[in-house]
Amino acid sequence: MTQPYVRLDKDNAAVLLVDHQAGLLSLVRDMNPDSFRNNVLALADLARYFDLPTVLTTSFETGPNGPLMSELKEILPDAPYIARPGQINAWDNEEFLQAVKATGKQQLIIAGIVTEVCVAFPALSALEAGYEVFIVTDASGTFNEYTRDSAWQRMTAAGAQLMTWFGVACELHRDWRNDIEGLGTLFANHIPDYRNLMNSYASLQAMKQR
Amino acid sequence: MTQPYVRLDKDNAAVLLVDHQAGLLSLVRDMNPDSFRNNVLALADLARYFDLPTVLTTSFETGPNGPLMSELKEILPDAPYIARPGQINAWDNEEFLQAVKATGKQQLIIAGIVTEVCVAFPALSALEAGYEVFIVTDASGTFNEYTRDSAWQRMTAAGAQLMTWFGVACELHRDWRNDIEGLGTLFANHIPDYRNLMNSYASLQAMKQR
Amino acid sequence: MTQPYVRLDKDNAAVLLVDHQAGLLSLVRDMNPDSFRNNVLALADLARYFDLPTVLTTSFETGPNGPLMSELKEILPDAPYIARPGQINAWDNEEFLQAVKATGKQQLIIAGIVTEVCVAFPALSALEAGYEVFIVTDASGTFNEYTRDSAWQRMTAAGAQLMTWFGVACELHRDWRNDIEGLGTLFANHIPDYRNLMNSYASLQAMKQR
Amino acid sequence: MTQPYVRLDKDNAAVLLVDHQAGLLSLVRDMNPDSFRNNVLALADLARYFDLPTVLTTSFETGPNGPLMSELKEILPDAPYIARPGQINAWDNEEFLQAVKATGKQQLIIAGIVTEVCVAFPALSALEAGYEVFIVTDASGTFNEYTRDSAWQRMTAAGAQLMTWFGVACELHRDWRNDIEGLGTLFANHIPDYRNLMNSYASLQAMKQR
Amino acid sequence: MTQPYVRLDKDNAAVLLVDHQAGLLSLVRDMNPDSFRNNVLALADLARYFDLPTVLTTSFETGPNGPLMSELKEILPDAPYIARPGQINAWDNEEFLQAVKATGKQQLIIAGIVTEVCVAFPALSALEAGYEVFIVTDASGTFNEYTRDSAWQRMTAAGAQLMTWFGVACELHRDWRNDIEGLGTLFANHIPDYRNLMNSYASLQAMKQR
Amino acid sequence: MTQPYVRLDKDNAAVLLVDHQAGLLSLVRDMNPDSFRNNVLALADLARYFDLPTVLTTSFETGPNGPLMSELKEILPDAPYIARPGQINAWDNEEFLQAVKATGKQQLIIAGIVTEVCVAFPALSALEAGYEVFIVTDASGTFNEYTRDSAWQRMTAAGAQLMTWFGVACELHRDWRNDIEGLGTLFANHIPDYRNLMNSYASLQAMKQR
Amino acid sequence: MTQPYVRLDKDNAAVLLVDHQAGLLSLVRDMNPDSFRNNVLALADLARYFDLPTVLTTSFETGPNGPLMSELKEILPDAPYIARPGQINAWDNEEFLQAVKATGKQQLIIAGIVTEVCVAFPALSALEAGYEVFIVTDASGTFNEYTRDSAWQRMTAAGAQLMTWFGVACELHRDWRNDIEGLGTLFANHIPDYRNLMNSYASLQAMKQR
Amino acid sequence: MTQPYVRLDKDNAAVLLVDHQAGLLSLVRDMNPDSFRNNVLALADLARYFDLPTVLTTSFETGPNGPLMSELKEILPDAPYIARPGQINAWDNEEFLQAVKATGKQQLIIAGIVTEVCVAFPALSALEAGYEVFIVTDASGTFNEYTRDSAWQRMTAAGAQLMTWFGVACELHRDWRNDIEGLGTLFANHIPDYRNLMNSYASLQAMKQR
């Protein structure tokens, strides 16, 4: 008895970014920091590009955990932002829960730091509450690979779907013709190899014009 | 409640090769390029050897994604070839869907670039449509290992079976006596260690004759 | 059909530490010894901090397997301690089983050496007996990574939830406001990166006071 | 809905060793050759030690695949040995199937080369036929790690339990008191770290006697 | 007889960026593409920040190798740019050699694609010509790790000093007081962990002001 | 022409700990944080145990780099401590240089964060000044492995000897009989595997007494 | 005192291929077999392309070591081929030595199986005899990475230059204009990423023509 | 100025096995235990096979370090065996030094636990005393890979040659014809892949006879 295909739908999806804070970023060691930062920003750009309702939340921003990554506020200036006073599972925070409900969406795209806590706890709670849950694994980080693997198995067993930001973008977009340039720009900005392909192509096209 | 054994049957299987394009190949970094190219060609040779109906498809071949690997057209000159105008999930392309249906097969052997999109999306759609789906993991590539692992977990949870080209060949062939030389040649051409075994053996046999 | 969210509850959880013995520690090679020792002690400190009933057990302490890690007895001086005369699966030992029942808890947090035997066997037995089982993967060790991966798959398939000590602490604590300093100290003592965050923060706060 | 705990029972278990042949051994690259050889011999010693009915089988022993590892015949001289004339899935060979049935056991402990074919195919067939199947992952080898991972996921999804030879031995033995010396010798012969523990202990005991 | 300490001197150093072209970037597989792109841009920013004379060169820009990374031209608009008509070793190109001489510097900081050719060849030639040579290893890339290691050993044996862009910046700057903000900005733009430290610090300082 | 054996001499050696600061620790990613912290503390304990003159130094302690690891001040309360106002190479700071000279030693044991800057720069300067230099590689950390490897090759080429804290301790101590318990305690406190050996041994000895 | 730049010269270089035999290939585990086979054939193609005198040699071809890779004889049909009757170091074989001298070259490009014996021994002997020696590290293979690393350090210390086949080809060719198509074909045949670049380029050029 | 080729000569070589003790073996984590044990025994067998004078030594055999690996005494019953009372560097022990001198050899083949102490210290002392030193890297073990790498660089810089047991055997034997069967047996007993080659060959030869 396998899981049915629940496909991301840009009209029914919201993004939850949980605890991407400057201090907590120093805990992330299951991915190199260049790639992790890039993936988190790609996910934020994606949320803006598809105009998905997005909820930002942090824990103890004035303490050691540090402030939210400043780029997230810049990219998503209108996103509701909930500074939790103490709840570790964001889902336990009433204000956060209302913000999620206010999006009116059934599909939740979740990422955060650290994977097995800030991502897994609300993901499991959301599944229990009947939401469809998609984890953006490459915009979520934690202490090491075995912690990540444990968290992935726990979330998968509970019915969460594991994706990466690129897959999320592709499943939301569905057809390049909806906006070739927009999607291409999103990719070029966050995938060096894709940027190279586009630059080589553009360069040759330019020569062709001459 | 586990999955029943759905066994590949050469009279009921088709191969779908999705977006093995020169540009996209530069995105594949979860396998070294020598092995990846070898695996993709092995799968194409396998399709030809077992005379399996095969569908080729690409996205944006005239743009940065680049042309289909030329070897695939050479190995499978008669395979229907669908250049999709924009659909990211090949299953969303009516022409591709008709080509799949035209094979008349219930078992779909799928590989492509990149794993979590070009492979996973049609695989999940095909499962939803009632097909039996086999992923050729080593002829499918993507950005990095955590993306691959996420995609594998998503597809497994949905009921896809993960295989590699060698396993596919063996499950289709069933008995060496059906054609020892043909299968041996397929293996020797794509598995250096097997080629060595065969050469050492042949060399000793030759000495024995003398 | 996925697993429901069974959430750790500090009023309903007990800890089982199985065979963390000096000799057996030399068998653990799927984690570096600095991290493994740290994780085991963190789990013991966590048990004490949350005042969870804890059961210690060893096999053949007077033989090659060696004595229980002395720190565990120091941290948990009142925990029942069962030296099994021969049963490999601790659950087969009546005294151990009684100690587990005596905790009166339904949620069992299990760690031990080696993962696929001393952890997996009682975990599978406890699941069969109707307990909710949580494996502390990073306080459990074994010979190598493929052994670990095999054991994880077996336990996950049987319904055990894979966690790490940090996730366990967070799920038990639920809200930082229950005791900020206590939880912070637990983390600082066992997570160097977190200690650094706290020290930098305290240092700046101190300057601020001046 | 998770899998129930099916526990190995030495009175109800048989061992199937599939295609551990000298030539095929050169294909195994997901484990270093010293460890792999050691694990295969440990499994054979285990089968002898617990007096489990064992079936040996090979494919094309007189061709490039090469002869069965000679140590297996030496350790298990009375095991039925089926040289298959061509069937890739040993379960398709009537003689092999009869040998399995002749053991009269319901639990099958399977290992072989290569994992995704010679192990996975009979494992899946045996599960379909209603047997309880245990894969000895560390006595099974294949081309590389992604092939292994694919095969493990396929077998797990079908209900096979993944174990290693050490776990199998422990689950069969159940209680050290059944034979301390016998089990200790099995471990010392195949686990250098355990041998060291035993030697250090024996050395200190000897000094103690003096 | 060891090498004397030749220390980078910002008044005596020039930067040579060799063949950082869009097509060739797809060959680089000894580093992940996010980090590699970041390192190359960091080196270019460094050259601009310290106002070091810089020479850009490419091979076959209108062919498969593709155009120079466009960011390099943007960051260093005034750098002489030599499109070599065919010489593989840039040092064999008279125009390039003149550009190097025109810098009037004795210390050459070299990076490029691929390490063992486009970097190593001019580096060895420059050493032979009496220059002091510093390789920026993390802004140089190649096919795989063993190729890189071979190239590093060859260059080290010839007297080149291996550094990374961060070390180069620090050795050139010598004293933070020369310009704290400038150097801090360079680091924050290219080292996510350093950016986090700065953001956490600034955030706490801001609170302090209040 | 190889290097002569320059052997550490406890009467002629001093220790330099450079920039082990809470903020900079978050940059260290070529070693896991549990091991790195342990190694740094082991080196400090070693310095105290052998009563080696030790110099502590930091850069910008009141800024983002954060305060010195507090444990270092606790272990080495009498060590001169130089907070450099801006010099990146500690050797460029006159106060530091005087502190080094004041030790009156010719052998300098150096560790710090980050390896290629805070360690390599003073190491190269000290070599140039005629000192014998020993790098404690495992108490020095940096961004990633290729940066570390580059730094090691540069320092080795200049005549520095690469060691780890355990080797340093052994070369200084020379003969266990100088103080078995003291050295044993140092090792037990920082090498879990050695602690296990000692505990197993002590446990057996205790039984022997009875 | 560093090594002077000895640059490969196609008029003064010969290639020695030592013991690339079918049986010995199964010993090579420091590289994946797809890449290793590709590298060896690339080196042979390179030797033919540059028309370098080449010497082939094997040990015990009629025994377990197996026959020379058949492709080498096909690519280099006119190369002298010395089947050594027993000398492990090919340089100890008078016939081989004469074949080397007969090439009349001073630069020897050496590759073989296994690196630390069949490559290192003749390389060290050739250096002693005054030849300039270049090791093709990626066309040489051995048991594991630490064996390789040991061998590389021994050969580097003795003055051998470590290169890979691509670097050798580039250093010999010097200028693309000597034969763009020939060199491009060599690369396309053995570097999948380069082939992709060329195919994408050619495809765009073709469109441009239209 | 490179090192001249110093070639092992079986009439001028002795073997020093330093501190291969049961307890210390648990510290070795830069190699898997199956391979490490195999390599140490291979070196001992090699010493016996070539009848090389061999010196065994241990430190604190009656303490936590544990007894010498019992197999070494069995393989080399006549080797002088020096239990050092406390000297960490075996070379500091007069009895050991006399045993080395008594061999009358100038070439010392050294292995031990741990690499950076028990191997490096006597190696450096022996080089200083004018001996030619060969390190058997794969029969020497230590805590982790960075410790090993540091030790290798220190020993290489001092003029030691890094080899593995297989290379040592080949360089000592020089010509298979000196004793094909003896050397073949040594290899078959310690290299599974070689054993496979020999078994396949023998099996085919046997068939040929018939």
From TrEMBL, chains A, B, C, D, E, F, G, H:
Alphabetically ordered keywords of this record: Hydrolase
Originating organism: Thiohalobacter thiocyanaticus
Entry-linked CDD domains: YcaC_related
Residue intervals of the Isochorismatase-like domain: 14-165
Pfam families: Isochorismatase (PF00857)
Lineage, broadest ranks: Bacteria, Pseudomonadati, Pseudomonadota, Gammaproteobacteria, Thiohalobacterales
Single annotated GO MF: hydrolase activity
Stated name of the protein: Hydrolase
Highest taxon above the source species: Bacteria
InterPro entries: Hydrolase_YcaC-like, Isochorismatase-like_dom, Isochorismatase-like_sf, YcaC
